[in-house]
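thoughts on my protein:
***
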Amino acid sequence: MSVKEWNQEAKEQAVIQQVRKGLISRAKGAELLGMDRWAFLELLSKYDIPYFDLSEEDLRNELEVLKKITRDSKSRAPREEVPSELEDG
């Protein structure tokens, strides 16, 4: 292993430990290593670190926000005109 490869490996290990401890975000970890999120996801998977690490409560909150956004966007969507002969009634 060359010195350059060794330095890169040491940097990866340091970032991975910071992510594992929750000291930096996964996005920040990817940034520090100069990786896109998919490459960083692959690296994390090698160390059995999930990319998404939400508690059950956090997941429920995220789902509620998503439901609200979906409802709000549907209520603002333009509606198509329905010819009167096709309307129920």
About this structure: DSSP finds four helices and no strands in the chain. The radius of gyration is 23 Å.
